Amino acid sequence: MTAKKRILIAEDDSFLLSLLDLQCSSLNMQTCCVGNGELLVAEALSYTFDIILTDIQMPLCDGIEAMQILRRLGYDRPVFAMSADSLECEGFDYIFEKPVNVELLAELLSGTPTQQPLPLQLNSQLTNLFYQNLAQLSQDFATALNNEEREQMRLICHKIKGGAASFGHGALSQLADHLQQRLLLQKLDLTLLNECQQFLLVTQQAGADNERT
Amino acid sequence: MKEPKLLLVDDVDYSRQLLRNNIMSLTEMKLLKYRTFNFFNAGTAADAKALFTLHQPDIVFLDIELPDYSGLELLAQFKQQKPSCFIAMISGASTLENVTNSIKMGAATFIAKPFTGDKILAAMRLMEKQIYLQASQRTP
Predict the structure, then answer these.
(1) Does A165 touch chain B (CB under 8 A)?
(2) Which of the 8 DSSP states describes residue A96?
(3) Is pLDDT larger for residue B134 or for residue A153?
(4) Which of A70, A129, B61, B96 could form a Cys-Cys staple with B14, CB 3.0–4.6 A?
(5) What pLDDT, in 10s, does the model give residues A55-101?
C-alpha cells in the first residue's frame, strides 16, 4: 500500500476548512488544518507535507505573504492557493477560484509527487550525547522546581522540546512544548507545580530507559 | 571547487554534532554538489563571534536561543562583517515573529527544531543555489 499524500490546508472560515478537510480526506489524503497564515508558515517548515493549499485572505498573515516567506526560505514544494477574486501571483503552483472545483483539485493532487522523507542520521555516539544532555537537563529541572524558578523551568522545557523529537521522543517533546507555554502564561500554582513534577518524572524515566538498553 | 567553511553555533553539543553528521551524510549520499566542508563549532555567542572574525565562514547555522545573548543580534553582526555569508537560523520556536525578524536581518533560511533530514537538506540546497548564483554574478 502506498503512503497517503500529506496536505496542509489553511483557511480561516471554519466551515470551509471542515469542507476542504472532508474533500481531501475522501481523496485519500492525510490532512492537517490551520486557520491562519502564521500557523501555515510554522507547520510548513516541518517539511512533512507534499502539498499546501491556502486561502488568500486570512488573519495574522495572509496566504500571499505566507507563501512569499516560505519561498524566500527556500521552500520548493507545491503551494496551491484559493481565491474568491481572480488573482495572478508568482510563487503559487496553481490558483483555484473559489468555490474550489473538486474534480480539478483531485486531478492536481494526484499529479503532485509524494515526497520521500529523508531519515535523520543518528549514531550511537550522538544518541548517548542526547541522553547525557537529557539527564543533565532533568537534574537542572529538579533544582529549578525545588526553587520554584519558573523561567528556568521554561527554558529547560524549550531545550527538551527542541531536541527530544529528533531522537524518537515525540511525546516528550510535545509535553515539553505544552509545559513551556503554560510556564510562560500562567502563575506557578499548585496545579502547575504538579504538572512540573510529572514532567520531571517523565524526563527521568526517558533517561533511565536508555540506561537499560 | 573551494571547500566552504561552515560554522555551527548551538549551545547543545549533540545538536552541533547532529548537524555535522547529517551534512556529511548528505555529501556521502551525493545529494549536494559540495563533497567536503571545513567545520567550526561554537557553543556561545562570544565563541561564535571570535571564530567568525578569525575564519570568515561561508555558511553559518545559528541557533537563536544562545546562553549569552540572542542569535538574532549575532546574525546582524555577521551580515555586517560578511554580507555574502549564508546564514540559516535555527529555533525551537518557529513563530512568525522569529521567522520574519530573521529574514529582515539577513538570514537566508530558518530551520525549526526538531531537526529532520528534509529540513537540513532544504537549507543546504538553498545554500548551494545562492552560492552558485553569487559566483555566476561575479563571473562576467
Answers:
(1) yes
(2) E
(3) A153
(4) A129
(5) 999 988 899 999 999 999 999 999 999 998 888 889 999 999 988 99
CB burial of residue A151 (10 Å; 0-12, 13-18, 19+): exposed
Cβ-Cβ contacts under 8 Å, A207 against chain B: none
Residue (of A158, A116, A8) closest to A70 by Cα position: A8
Residue A117 within a domain:
no
Domain residues for the domain of A171 are: 124-212
Identity of the residue in A47, A125, A130 whose CB atom sits nearest the CB atom of B119: A47
Instruction: Confirm whether the ipTM is greater than 0.85.
Output: yes
Tell me the pLDDT tens digit for each residue of A39-58: 999 999 999 999 999 999 99
Residues A37 and A92 both lie in one domain: yes
Q: List B residues 93-122 in contact with A (Cβ-Cβ < 8 A).
A: 93-96, 99-100, 103, 108-122
Dist. CA B60–CA B108, nearest whole Å: 10
B38 at A interface, C-beta within 8 A = no
For an interface test with B, which of A47, A75, A115 has the most B Cβ atoms less than 10 Å from its Cβ?
A: A47
Same domain, A196 and A135: yes
Q: Which residue from B minimizes the CA distance to A152? A: B67
Between helices A170-185 and A190-212, what is the axis angle to 10°?
160
CA atoms lying within 13 Å on the CB side of residue A89: 21
The candidate with the shortest Cα–Cα distance to A72, out of B138, B96, B23, is: B96
Contact of A50 with A77, CB cutoff 8 Å: yes
Considering A44, A78, A110, which residue would you say is the last residue of a domain? A110
Number of domains in chain B: 1
- Asked whether residue A134 is domain-assigned, the answer is yes
Residues in chain B: 140
CA distances from A49 to A58, A61, A117, B28, B125 (A): 20, 20, 10, 25, 18
8 Å CB contact of A161 and B95: no
Type of residue numbered A75? Y
